[in-house]
Amino acid sequence: MLGFIFIIFSFVLYHNPLAQQVGYDEISRKDKPAFDEFLGVNSVRESTIEMIRDQYRVATYHRIFAMDAYLFTGEEIVVDRRGNNLKVDLSIPHDEYPNDKMGFNPSKGAGGFNFDEFLLRMKENGLHSIPVLARNLLYANVPENNIINVWQLPYDNGGNPEDPMSYKAYSSFLYQFAARYGKNKFRNEGGTIDPATLKLTDSNEPKAGLDLVYAIEPGNEMDKDWITDKEQMTPPRMAAFLSAAIDGHMGQMGPGHGIRTADPEMKILFPGPIDIKPDYILAVRDEILKLRANAKELGYPVNPFENFVMTAHIYPFKGGRAQKGEGGEVIENTDIVTKSLEFVAKMKEAFDGCEVYLTEIGYDKVVNAHSQLGTPATLSDPVGSHQISTYSQAKHISRLIMNVFATGYDKMFLFTLKDPAMIGHSGYKVKFSTSGLIRKNGVKDHSWFAVNTMRHRLKGFVFDSLEEQGDLRVMRLKNGEKMAVVTWLTSNSDATWKGYTLDLGDNYNKIKLIKLEDNQPLGRESLLAEDSETVELTVEEFPKIVIAEN
To answer: Is there a smaller number of Cβ atoms within 10 Å at the N or the C end of the chain?
Structure first.
């Protein structure tokens, strides 16, 4: 009787795709991303080449924090630091940037950090860098007491945040960055960049067209609405900022302003909103079209979003925080899937098939009972000191990745690669304090091994279908004649489904099982069957990968 039930179950599962129930088929997948191209991580600037070669193997694409605007210009004027609030000395000449005496400082900025060398090492190791150029220049929008919050909106002193021309300083900074690290070269090298537009500190050699960054994101979570008015980008403000950032507001700022002025081919990421917010982005679009109504007369596009990437942030919890207590929220019961499906569809329709990235998502490895963004942990999950469960984090991140992969995003970035704070530090329970795949001292956590295995084992595979039956999920991926099947249960109660029959549909010469829960660089692999159409699996909450080859 039990065997009969499983036979019927397999038939229902195979013919009951989740796509028909929640809209997966509504996403156009003409250009399906391969899994390894889809997977990215949020990273930090790193000075140790061993860290780059080893720790960064979990993803090709890295969205890099700690490359804030103020690190490249103006550190000389800082006289005191109080967290995000900096006291600045404005007696040092800084007017009319980029003609000021400080200038752009890429190779000896941030206390001597060499950004040229760091980005080159990333590229040499096969990694794609997306600098997040967030936080303000230290001489834009400075209050009378000269104590500036670096998250303030970067409009010029005395300016209007809804006027594109009030972002002249920041637009010039973005030009300097894109000119150096983009693809466009100096005029005498076949490009269009005039060397006279580069305004560097004396210790920096003029360079252009180094081709070291994949894209630029000129800001981060600028739409946040829980702080002061000086730090919130409403749609009219964001429209003004982006028009300035893209091309110096249709070239009206003159030479040396705007990302596309420096490199017409540069990808630009919409500054990642705090949530999945299609209406916010569409409102920004409407505002920017108004601001640029006369763009054609000036020789610029009215709609400047060509080659733009639309973005979102979201964390796998209802209401933005974990459910307290044993078990916690089931990923699949949150609204990530439905909101993502809608978001991707709306963005691709509104912006002519643009790329869409989920640029922040992930779990804190502190368990849910002790952190508002903690990973759900069952009673049997190992929990170490400070209420940290790296096993739970790995289990839920693996499932999270699979769910997001099916929703149509072109890329997804886990938050974060490396812990922003030492595990065990006094602030270890603060959200994100221990969210990384790797600890600050370089030790790899369980999630690093799981994610690394997923990236390498599923290299070249694209999404095919996602099916459900109760708590069971079965995702199929294809890579030529190869098939990969990922199975997992959506409960947080140590559930197990024994004897599930997986119907592969065709004969395969070799069928392998790969387990992600092992702390091994590429997971434990075992041969399941040869020349078989079906295999029996034990399905658990931690995903398993079956790879069948012809």
So the answer is: N
Q: What is the pLDDT of residues 441-478, one digit of tens each?
A: 889 999 999 999 999 999 999 999 999 999 999 999 99
Apex 412 CA angle, 174 and 417, nearest 5: 80
Q: Which pairing describes strands 267-269 and 215-216: parallel, antiparallel, or unpaired?
A: parallel
The answer to whether 219 and 152 have CB atoms below 8 angstroms apart is: no
Look at residue 126 in the predicted model and tell me its pLDDT: 95
Q: Please give the structure tokens belonging to residue 539.
A: 């399905």
Count of alpha carbons within 13 angstroms of residue 53, beta-carbon side: 4
Show the tokens assigned to 469.
Answer: 């039956």
Q: Show the CA angle centred on residue 141, arms to residues 77 and 176, nearest 5°.
A: 65
529-540 residue pLDDT tens? 999 999 999 999
Q: What is the DSSP letter of 287?
A: H
Measure the CA–CA gap between 291 and 160, rounded to whole angstroms: 14
Distance linking the first and last C-alpha atoms of the chain: 33
Q: Cβ contacts of residue 228 below 8 Å, gap of 6+?
A: none
CB neighbour list of residue 134: distance below 8 Å, 6 or more residues apart: 65, 68, 69, 151, 217, 219, 220, 222, 271
All CATH 2.60.40.1180 domain ranges in the chain, comma separated = 470-549
What fold characterizes domain 470-549? Immunoglobulin-like (2.60.40)
